[in-house]
Amino acid sequence: MSASREAELLAARDDAARLVRVIVGIGSDLDLSVTLRRIVSAAMELSAARSGALGVKEADGALTTFVCQGIDEDTARQLVALLPVGEGVRLGGLSVQQLDTRLWLDGLPVRAVLAVPIMVRGNDFGALYLFDDRPDRTFSVVQEDAVRALATAAAAAIDNARLFEREREAAKWTKASREITTALLSSDPQTGPLQLIVSLALELADAEQAILLVPKEPDLPADQVATLVVAATAGRYASEVIGRQVPMDGSTTGGVARRGLPLITDSFQYPIEGFTDVGDRSAIVMPLIADGTVLGVIAVARRPHQPRFDNDYLELVSDFARHAAIALALAASREHALNRELAQADTVDDALKAAVDELRRLWRARRVLAVTFADQRAGADAVPTVVCDAGPLRWDDLTSDMQRELSSVRDGDLLAPVTTKPGVAAVAMQHPDGVLVVWIELAGQRPFTLEDQTLLTVLAGRLSQGLQHVHQVDQQRETALALQHAILGPDDLPRGFFARYQAASPPLQVGGDWYDVVDLEDGRIAMIVGDCVGHGLTAATVMGQVRSACRALLFDNPSPAAALSRLDRFAARLPGAQCTTAVCAILETGTGELVYSSAGHPPPILVFSDGTADILEGGHTIALGIRTGHHRPESRITVPAGATLMLYTDGLVERRGNTLDDGISRAVGMLAEHRDSALEDLVDVMMSGLAPEGGYHDDVVLLLCKPPAPLERTFPAHPAQLAGARTALRDWLRQVGVGQNQIVDLLVATGEAVANAIEHGHRDRPEGGVQLHAAVSADRVHVTVTDSGVWKVPSSVPDPVRGRGVALMRLLMDDVTLDHGASGTTVHLTARIL
After folding, report:
1. How many angstroms separate the CA atoms of 263 and 268, rounded?
2. CA 550 – CA 489 distance, rounded (Å)
3. What is the dihedral of CA 673, 678, 684, 685, to 10 degrees?
4. Which residues have C-beta within 8 Å of that of residue 490, sequence separation ≥ 6?
5. What are phi and psi of 188, to 5 degrees?
6. b or e along 486-498 (b: 16 or more beta carbons within 10 Å of the residue's beta carbon)?
7. Structure letter (DSSP) for residue 760
8. What's the pLDDT at 98?
9. Residue ranges of domains in the chain, CATH in brackets
10. Is 119:159 a contact under the CB 8 Å cutoff?
11. Which of 165, 323, 385, 588 has CA 20 to 30 A from 599's CA?
C-alpha cells in the first residue's frame, strides 16, 4: 500500500472518529440552548470554519432565533437573508468581485459559505450556517458530508432536548397551579389568587406583560356581561393597565370570553392602554372556565423579538388556565358544602365522616375511604383507622394490595393527587394525629380529569385545615367542659341518684343553677340544688363558689339548716350571690330519714311506690344573703323503699302564663305516672315531657333519688333453701349495680353465714327459721344473716377440714361482726363497693 493511500485511510479514520465524538457530545446535555451551542461548535470543528450560526425558524418560516459563534447575530441575519438554503448551499473560492457586494459587511470578507438544513420530525427546524473569510477557502465535499451527518444527529438531539424542555416546562406550570391552589386557602381568596395567577404566568412564559380581566358585573349571567375589567397585572406598565375596561363585544379578549376558546395573536381589536400600544408582539389569550362558565380572561404578551407562542405552548398554558379557573370558582364560593360540613362538626371523627359523605356526593363516587395513619406518638403497632361512606370498615378488612397502595400514598407528597389506577384517585394530607389518605373510587372507572385533580387538591387542603381547626376547637371545648363540669357538680353519683342539667346559654354547659350530691361517709348522703341569679358565665362563676362553699360547710357540720345559715353570710359578701335560692337535704340511707331545709327554693317532691305524692314545703324560708343571722328551720320525713324524691330548679316547672303551683302539679303527675321507670329513663321522660314549646329558656336542674329497696327474705333452716337464697341475693346485687367480682365475694361470704345458721344455729331445732337482709348505701353493701338458734362455741381443737367459714368471711368482706345471745345469732357483713 502506498504511503499516500495509507495517509488517506488514516485521515478518514480520524474524521470518522471525530464525527462520532462530536455527535456524542451534542446529545450529552438535555438543555436546548446548550445543545444548540454545541451543534454550532461541532460543525465548526468538522468543517474547520472560522464562524458559524444556527438559525431557528418559527411556524411561519421566519428565522427569529440565532445561535452564533465567531460572528455577531446582526451580521449573521444579514448574511443568511442572502442565502436561501433549500437542500443546502456550498460556495467557496470566491473573491470579493465574484460575491455580491452585500456579502461584504463591516469589513468582514466572506470567502466560503456552507449551509445545511436541519429537519426535526419532518419539520423544518432551521439551518446550520458556516462561514470562512480566508482567501481561496473552500469547504470540501467530505466536510459537507460530515456536517450533513451532524445535522441528522443534531435533529435527534434537538428533539430530545425539546421533549425534555417541554416536560420541564410542564412541571413548572403544574407546580404553579399548585401554588394557586395553596393561595386559595389564604384568608383573602378574592385577591390573592388573581395576582398570583398573572405573576406566575408572566414568570413561566418569560413574558413582558400579563393581565387578568374579570366581568365587571360578576352577578349577571355570562351572556349578559357587557364589560371586562383588568383586575390583576404583572410586568410592564402594571400600574397603568390595572382597572382598564374592555367591552365584551368588539374586543379580542371579549371574543375569547364569549367563545371560550384560547387564541394566539399579534394584535388586539380593542385598544387597552399600556398593553396593546407597546408594539407588535406575540400574545396568548386564554379563557378561565370552570363548570362551563367563563370567569375571566388572561392575556400574556412576550417581548417584540421573542419567539412566537406555538400550539404546544398553548396546551401548557391552557392547562394552567383551567387550574386557575377552578381556583377562582372555589375562591368565589367560600361557603362550599365541605366547609359547611366541617363547620357543623363537633369532633374530628364527626368532621371526617361528614367529609367522606360530601366527597362521595360531589364525585358521585362508588366508594370513598378516609384512612388515618397515626404518627409515632401512637406507637409502632398502631393500626390505621378507616372511615367508609358505605358503613363500618376496619384496616384488616382491606386487601393486602389495597393496604400497600394506601401506605404508598401516605409516603408520597402531601396534597398531590395520585391517579395511576383507572377510576381511582387518592390524596394524602396532614391530620391532627398523623397523615390522612382519602381514597375515591369513581363509578364506571371514569377518568379523573385535570379539573378533578385540582378540585381534589383544593378540597384536601381545606379538609386538612378544617380537621386541624375542629381538633383545636374540640380540645378547647373538652377543656372548657371539664372546667364547667368541675364547677357544676359530680358526674359519678351514688347508686339510686341521677341528675340532668341543661344550661340556657349555649354553647356553655353551665349557668346559675347547680346540684351536688355529697357522701358524708357515715351512712348519710347530702343533696343540694340551687339557683343563682342570672345566666351564662357570670352566673356560673358565682354558682361555682356557692356550691363549693356549701359542700365544705356540710362536711364541717352535716346539718341542712346550719349549712344554709352559714351560706347566708357567704352570699351576702359575694357579689352576685345575694338572692340565691337553694334546698339542702340529708338522707340517712339505713333508715330512709330525710332532713331538709329550703332557702326560697321550689319544694322537693316525694312520690311513693303506690303513686301518692307529698310536696315537701316544710323548712322553707327566704333566699340566701338577704338577712344574715337568720334562723333557718329543718323538716323531717321518711323516704320509704320504692319512693322517688325529686329536687329541681324553677326552670323545670315555671312557664309564662301559668303559676308556679300549676307547674309543680304537672311535675307531680308526670313523676307519679312514670315512677316505676329506671332513673335514667325517668329523667329523660321528665325533661322532655315538661319542656315548653321551643325548648327551655332558663337553666334547668333535675335531681332524682330513688334508694334501692332492701332485700328481705325469711326461709326455713334447711340446706335446700341455700340455692334460693343465693339466687335472690345475686339478682338483688345486680339490680343495685354491684360489679360481678364483688357479687361472687358477697355470695360466698353470705353462703357461709347462711350455711352456719342452718347447720350450727339450728342443729337442735331444725324447725327454726333464717332471715336474710341486704341494703345498699352510697358506697357499701350491708348483708345481715339472723337465725333463732343457739350459738355453737368453737372447739378448742381446730378441725383440720371444717371450721373455716368465719375466716373466709373476714377475708372476703371489709367488715364482719357476729352478735350471739339467747335469741339467736346475727352476722353483719359489709363490703365497700368498688
Report:
1. 11
2. 12
3. -10
4. 516, 517
5. -125, 75
6. ebbbbeebbbbbb
7. I
8. 46
9. 16-166 (3.30.450.40), 185-331 (3.30.450.40), 337-480 (3.30.450.40), 489-705 (3.60.40.10), 711-832 (3.30.565.10)
10. no
11. 588
Confidence band, pLDDT 50/70/90 cuts, at residue 267: confident
Task: Using alpha carbons, select from 817, 821, 827 the residue that is nearest to residue 774.
Answer: 827
Instruction: Residue 627: count other Cβ atoms within 10 Å of its Cβ.
Output: 11
Note the residue count of the chain. Answer: 834
Strand partners, 297: 213, 287
C-alpha to C-alpha distance for 63 and 44, rounded to whole angstroms: 20
Pull the grid cell for residue 666.
304537672
Distance from C-alpha of 591 to C-alpha of 588, rounded to nearest angstrom: 6
Q: Which of 831, 788, 791, 795 is nearest to 811 (CA)?
A: 831
Which residues are bridge partners to 614 per DSSP?
A: 606
**563: exposed, middle or buried (C-beta count within 10 Å: 0-12, 13-18, 19+)?**
buried
Among 527-531, 544-548, 602-606, 803-807, the least confident range: 803-807
CA 366/CA 389 separation, integer angstroms: 9
| DSSP helix/strand/coil, 738 | coil
Q: What's the CA gap between 62 and 517, in Å, rounded?
A: 95
For residue 698, give Cα distances in angstroms to 480, 576, 743.
Answer: 21, 18, 43
Mean pLDDT of 691-700: 84
**772: how many CB neighbours lie within 10 A of its CB?**
23
Higher pLDDT, 324 or 227: 227
Most confidently predicted of 17-31, 85-99, 330-344, 611-625: 611-625
pLDDT surpasses 60 at 108: no
Complete DSSP assignment for 389-437: TTS---GGGS-HHHHHHHHHHHHS-TT--B--STTEEEEEEEETTEEEE
Answer yes or no: pTM beyond 0.70.
Answer: no
One-letter amino acid of 728? A
Residue reference for cell 300549676: 662
Q: How far apart are CA 79 and CA 41, in angstroms?
A: 19
Phi then psi dihedrals of residue 302, to 5 deg: -90, 175
Pick the closest to residue 298 from 318, 282, 313, 271 (CA basis): 318
CA atoms within 13 A on the CB side of 22: 26
Contact present, 455 and 377 (Cβ < 8 Å): no
**More confident site: 218 or 728:** 728
Sheet strand arrangement including 700-705: 497-502, 700-705, 644-648, 605-607, 613-615
| 19 confidence band (pLDDT: 50, 70, 90) | low
Q: What is the CA radius of gyration of the chain?
A: 47
Q: Which residues pair with 52 in a beta bridge?
A: 69, 130
- The candidate with the shortest Cα–Cα distance to 547, out of 511, 525, 516, is 516
- On whether the CB atoms of residues 159 and 121 are closer than 8 A, the answer is yes
Measure the CA–CA gap between 285 and 213, rounded to whole angstroms. Answer: 11
Alpha-carbon distance values, 447 to 409, 552, 584, 699 (Å): 19, 70, 71, 56
339478682: which residue's cell? 731
Q: Which three cell numbers stand for residue 607?
A: 312520690
CB 114 within 8 A of CB 147: yes
Nearest to 818 by CA among 731, 733, 725, 756: 756
End-to-end CA distance of the chain: 115
The one-letter code for the residue type at 28 is S
- Taking only the tens place, the pLDDT of each residue in 133-187 is 887 788 888 888 888 888 888 878 877 777 777 767 666 666 666 666 565 554 4
Q: DSSP 3-state assignment of 136?
A: coil
**Separation between Cα atoms, residue 159 and residue 686, nearest integer Å:** 83
Chain-centroid distance, C-alpha 248: 43
Paired residues of 89 in beta bridges: 115
CA–CA gap between residue 66 and residue 320 (Å, rounded): 30
Within 121-208, strands assigned E span 123-132
